[in-house]
Amino acid sequence: MPDFSALNTAYSGLRAAQVGIDTASHNVANAHTKGYTRQIVDLQTRFPFLSQYGPLGSGVEVARISRVRDAFLDDRVRSAYDTQGSLKERADLLGRLEGQMNEPDLGVSRALGEVWSAFEDVALSPSDSAARSNALSELQNLTGRINGVRAGWDRLQGDAADRLRLRIDDANLALRQLAELNTEIQETTAFAGAPNDLLDQRDLLIDKLAQTVGATSQVQSNGTVRMVLGGVGLVDGSSIQSMSVGAPPGYAITAAGSTVTVGGEVAGIQKFLTTDLTTYRTRLDTFSIDLVNAFNTQHALGETAAATPGGALLSYNAANPSGSIAVVITNPALLAMSGAPYAPNSGTNAQAMANLRNSLSANTNTLTFDASIRQFITELGALTQNETQATRSQDELVAAAELTRKGTQGVSLDEEMVQMLQFQHSYSASARMMTTVDQMLETLIKGTGMVGR
Known about the structure:
- This protein has about 450 residues and is of the alpha+beta class.
- It folds into 2 domains: about 5-70 and about 415-445, no CATH class; about 75-400, no CATH class.
- The chain is about 60% helix and about 10% strand.
- The chain has 10 helices and 13 strands.
- The chain has helices at about 5-30, 70-100, 110-125, 130-190, 195-215, 265-300, 320-325, 350-355, 370-410, 415-445; strands spanning about 40-45, 50, 55, 60-65, 215-220, 225-230, 230-235, 240, 245, 255, 260, 315, 325.
- The strands form 5 sheets. A 4-stranded antiparallel beta sheet has the order 5-6-7-8. A 3-stranded antiparallel beta sheet has the order 9-10-11.
- The relative contact order is 0.14.
């Protein structure tokens, strides 16, 4: 160790302060960069010089530049993202499902009420062709609205299926990007240490995959990350297992030849398609079948003005009842509105048709048609409202988790200013120390051998 080692010691402080200022500057520049994690300089003492008086400190050195990252907070945020994604997608789709019913003004319930009123008008004036025509028109309006709801739901199924495939495509793209980052991170770590900015990009992708499919991450000893979903490794180093969407009605998500249980946005869409939409479409089909059976049965008991028995009034295709329900009769004179004991224009059967309003002919003969459609609408509305409220509550939890994580890992401009001032003072002090040593050396060099002259 040469004499005046203080010069070298002061220089180490100068270099460390410069790294600190550069790091603080980098933090400030990225204060609003999405996914950026605050970086700090970890300093440590240099190996001491063993002088004749004992170990003598030789200055400071930069051990590493670390990210201020908390794995627990990351897990908390990603778990919240997973739940939020599922709730949000399902709530949105349920809202659209409910909206297709156009209740109360343009919905099935209003059209059903108009049908009852129309048949009551026919009962009062059974020979009035206008009243009969109106009854047929209201029936056509009712079946048309049922058809419209079903057609809207079928379109919604297509939209939701497209959205599901789009989410899986996004997730597969994130998996490929993550595998590429794994390679870069491993190569960089091997010769230069942890590449903090690449790790930030990696964590952003992990956040996205948690929200999209509910995948979880496992950081490996070599700096890479392994992504797991339902026990299947989607990313391991540079290798990936892409996901695909199965055919309806299951819309199963598969990867590596196995069906995987997903979370996040994909789970919300999948649940809507396989459970919500299927359930309510089946209920609308059942309502349509009950309506056709009740109207046709009662109509068959009546007679036309020409004293001929009533035929089928409504029809449907068993493969798609609610989408195909239709009025069979187009001629008002063929409405069998009469019946014993006041044939041929008694209007007895017209009143019986109107009285179906109070008949327990729906839901396996337990509800009236009005009560059945009200229950249908109410339950769908309640489910949508509950899911929407749950989404809002989860949004608040996500915001709180993100705020906590940002408070720990985000950049505080005030704090960075303090850090910059501290390193600036350290830099100035080290520079002053070097100047002092330089002056001492100058005095020694110029003054040596001149004593007594």
